[in-house]
Amino acid sequence: MSRRPPGPADHPLVQRVRYMRDPLGYLAKCQRELGDIFMLALSKHGMVIVCSPELAKAVYTAGDEYLVAGEAKIKVFGKVLGTSSTLLLDGAPHLERRRLLLPRFRGEIMQTFGPVMLEACRRTLDAMPKDRAFALHPFMHRTAFEVIMRALFATTPPDVLAPLRETLREFANDAITSRLFLFPALQKDLGPWSPWGKVRRIVDRTRPAVLAEIRRRRRQATSTTADIVGLLLDAHDDSGRPLTDEEIRDEILTMVAAGHETTAMALTWLCSTVFTRHDILARLRGELAAQQVLGGPLDVDRLPYLDAVCRESLRFNSLIPNGSGRLLKKPLPLGGYVAPAGAMLTVAFHQIHRRADVFERADEFWPERFIDAKYTPYESIAFGGGTRRCLGMPFALFEMKIVLATLLDQVRLEIVQRDIKPSWRGMFLTPSRGLQVRVRPWPATAARAGTQSPRPDVRHEDLHHG
Ligand code: HEM
Q1: What angle do CA 69, 74, 75 make, to 5 degrees?
Q2: Does any domain span residue 286?
Q3: Is 274 exposed, middle or buried (0-12, 13-18, 19+ CB in 10 A)?
């Protein structure tokens, strides 16, 4: 048993072009023709891609002697995020860091950020144009950035926060979104106006600015755990060792990088589906009204249908076509083949999420499935898995629920775009054209029934790739 997983007959260059043009379609075609494990020429030594919960389980439970994640990402992100954040560690240091951070990222603690999330969402809503169609994604991006900033630095005084926010905004908008992350060979600093030179200079401004704020906070007489920086300053391992300032800086930069772009896209996909489904809108608004959330205190964690809608959106809409990237340290037997050392290994989230043998009515947006059925961590995997499952999952899910509940309370978004196709933004997929919408009020009558507008003729392209 020493066969490598099969690959398509296409020339490696053609494979890349086809994947970049239509990632979900190409992955579906390869799965149909080659099975649940195959290899594409998407990285230097090839990329093994698995498409079933059983194979995902084998990936997520393989030891560090076979698969590492930090080492795989460090070449790409190390220059920007630093090398000591959870995302880039491996082995025992990674597990220790997770042990230290996980209790501080529990759902109950993340819920304390509810008011800042609500406030950020309301501000974005106020800024939305009321008289014309516009792209929703930039507004969701703004909301998610504001949310992560407020959660990180809630207790930083406004005069200190204002310049730091601008530096981090530049970092988030112009550094971490650089396409050069996909092409390490082109990362050459040829002066301040060259593409990588710009990224480098932004990073060189950002890292000391964040460090300065950590040191300012450490010098303060009283400590607080009312924001994430406070939680990180307060954290210490079993032997009482706290995180160093540099480790906290790298964690903060990672959270800015990992924590808002993904959530913004998840929110845009969520709106793309919910606001075209009048049955779902009606049930959601009914649930919100019944629990007197509208107008009363927002308690989104007691709304099972809202929770199910958000989880179903993460299943149905794939912002990450294949994720959980790992580097193979030595050959790994997998699905009757051997994944070769040196190759990358990824899990095709979309292929797993659309499997008919796991998900009844797999190609339908059907939130009820998450109320009635429990899925294993290898079936519902939008946040990855194993010891590297997304640290921000409770935060992101909570934020999605708050933002959707607030939107539903305030406005009806009319989707004015006919074809909604997945389109690349950095390494993620977002609705094409940023999702064109118009803000409409809820009519006074039947406002909470959600049945008042004609259903726009919206087609979700990726339905055809199931
Ligand atoms: C809907 C929004 C989000 C999605 C879909 C998402 C998805 C993911 C995925 C797929 C991974 C990789 C897991 C693996 O390798 O198996 C990951 C890792 C990670 N995410 Fe998220 N994420 C989201 C939001 C957030 C937020 C809000 C934060 C922080 C506040 C965050 C922080 C992290 C960190 C630190 C890791 C690295 C974990 C590790 O390597 O141990 N994410 N996320």
Answers
A1: 120
A2: no
A3: buried
Residue 185 forms part of a structural domain: yes
- In-domain check, residue 208: yes
- Indicate the angle between helix axes 114-127 and 137-153, nearest 10 degrees: 150
* Strands of 226-282, DSSP E: none
Tokens of 75: 């070449």
Residue 93 belongs to a domain: yes
- Beta strand pairing call for 419-420 and 459-460: parallel
Atom 18 of ligand 1, nearest CA residue: 390
Residue 109: in which H helix or E strand, if any? Answer: helix 107-110
- Return the residue whose CA atom lies nearest to atom 27 of ligand 1: 259
What Å distances lie between residue 72 and 48, 76, 89, 94, 284, CA to CA?
14, 8, 10, 14, 41
Which stretches of the chain score pLDDT less than 70? 1, 292-298, 444-466
Which of 86, 146, 390 has most ligand 1 atoms within 8 Å of its beta carbon, as the pocket-test mutant? 390
pLDDT digits (tens, 9 = 90+) for 80-136: 888 899 999 999 999 999 999 988 888 888 888 888 888 989 999 999 999 999 999
Please name the amino acid found at residue 83: T
Residue 93 domain boundaries: 72-113+139-147+158-257
Distance 390 CA to ligand 1 centre (A): 3
Cβ atoms of 152 and 435 closer than 8 Å = no
Domains held by the chain: number: 1
Residue 77 has a pLDDT of 84
* Helix, coil or strand: residue 412: strand
